[in-house]
Design a protein that fits this description.
EC number: 2.7.11.1
Radius of gyration: 22 Å
Strand order of the largest sheet: 4-5-6-8-7
Shape: elongated
Helix content: 25-40%
Strand content: 15-25%
Order of helices and strands: HHEHHEEHEEEHHEEEHEEEEHHHH
CATH superfamily of the largest domain: Phosphorylase Kinase, domain 1
Number of helices: 12
Family: Belongs to the protein kinase superfamily. RIO-type Ser/Thr kinase family.
CATH topology of the largest domain: Phosphorylase Kinase, domain 1
Pfam families: RIO1 (PF01163), Rio2_N (PF09202)
GO molecular function: ATP binding; metal ion binding; protein serine/threonine kinase activity
Distance between the termini: 8 Å
Oligomer: single chain
Largest sheet: 5 strands, antiparallel
Bound molecules: adenosine-5'-diphosphate, magnesium ion
Number of domains: 3
GO cellular component, one term: nucleus
Structural class: alpha+beta
């Protein structure tokens, strides 16, 4: 579904009222019965039905009459609710071009009132086939809170909370500006994903900075779990920024060592292939860390002094709870989400 900002212009107050009613209904229903929407929206003279027709036309709602007559929000509808809320809060004024498409997200440029350009990331966590997630769906079926709105909202909240906490600890991440529903607002990173970079004037330095980040994350109790050339941005001065945090785990995770080694290996592999460099002994000086280096030049996970409390304390303080993390982890298993799942569109 293509996102068309112009639709915002011709959506009325009543349209948003009905959209919000459907969203409220979706807390307890995957498909919200039509009369319930009408009751929640409580527009005069049966106005809800006319509005729903309009929202359906613009694909902000989806109609489903298979069990009973009802509607659900589409991603587009959810996008508009989040964007409208941000615009009302004065976070940004306009939405521009799309700058990134992930399997789990769409990224757009937005502009603030004073002309600054920021980025929004709209999470698309439920964009999976029913079959692929059936076992998880069964597992969660007694939870009224389960649906894709909840999952994408959690992904956004997790990302926002991690970004904020990482920024406060001096990690090079985008500035976390705001978060609503499934939408994270952040600073726009100048530069390109590492995957697009063909040349670097200081390959070794960039490489060491990146490996140093994996180690420093572990020292703070965290593993990125998707640390690769798509989630590392490089600007013209070869400054590194890391992005994309919904799948991060604690160093106390039972597969922590495997995730850590995999993150490290991704970086080694990319630099070997792209820049043709060999690393024997080249990472023995990581950012003042006391990490041991194994015989292949890789930092040893077991040798890192880890502060395991980071995740609990700092993230809980920023609004993301351990329970929510458990919920999202049932869906976002690091490394599985992209490889084994089937995604629509
Ligand atoms: P996904 O979880 O779908 O992989 P990412 O957060 O990795 O989403 O973003 C997808 C792409 O969008 C990135 O590879 C990058 O090109 C672009 N992007 C994401 N965040 C920003 C940002 N703050 N500034 C500039 N580009 C960004
Ligand atoms: Mg990514």
């Amino acid at each position: 579904m293509k996102f068309d900002v112009d639709v915002l212009r011709y959506l009325s107050k009543d349209d948003f009222r009905v959209l919000t009613a459907v969203e409220m209904g979706m807390r307890n229903h995957e498909i919200v019965p039509t009369e319930l929407i009408d009751r929640i929206a409580s527009l005069k003279h049966g106005g809800t039905y006319k509005v729903m027709k309009n929202l359906l036309k613009h694909k902000l709602l989806h109609h489903d009459a298979s069990k009973y007559d009802g509607f659900r929000l589409t991603y587009l509808g959810y996008d508009f609710l989040a964007i409208k809320t941000m615009v009302n809060r004065g976070v940004f004024m306009a939405v521009g071009r799309q700058i990134g498409v992930g399997k789990e997200s769409d990224i757009f440029e937005v502009a603030t009132e004073d002309g600054r350009v920021l980025a929004i990331k709209l999470h698309r966590l439920g964009r999976v086939s029913f079959r692929a997630v059936k076992s998880k769906r069964d597992y969660l079926k007694h939870r009224s809170s389960f649906n894709w709105l909840y999952l994408s909202r959690l992904a956004a909240l997790k990302e926002f909370s991690f970004m904020k906490a990482l920024e406060e600890h001096g990690f090079p991440v985008p500035n976390a500006v705001d978060c609503n529903r499934h939408c994270v607002v952040m600073s726009l990173v100048q530069g390109y994903p590492l995957v697009q970079v063909k040349q670097l004037s200081n390959v070794e330095m960039v490489f060491e900075t990146i490996i140093g980040l994996v180690v420093r994350l572990a020292e703070h109790g965290l593993i990125h779990c998707d640390f690769n050339e798509f989630n590392i941005m490089i600007d013209d001065d070869e400054k590194v920024t890391m992005i994309d945090f919904p799948q991060m785990v604690s160093v106390s995770h039972r597969n922590a060592q495997m995730y850590f080694d995999r993150d490290v290996e991704c970086i080694f592999k990319f630099f070997r292939k792209r820049f043709n460099i060999l690393f024997e002994g080249s990472t023995d000086d990581i950012d003042g860390s006391e990490v041991n280096i194994d015989e292949n030049g890789r930092p040893c996970f077991t040798s890192i002094a880890k502060n395991v409390g980071f995740l609990d304390k700092e993230l809980a303080a920023s609004g993301f709870t351990r329970k929510e993390d458990e919920d999202i982890k049932k869906w976002v298993t690091p490394g599985i989400i992209l490889q084994n799942w089937f995604w629509f569109s």
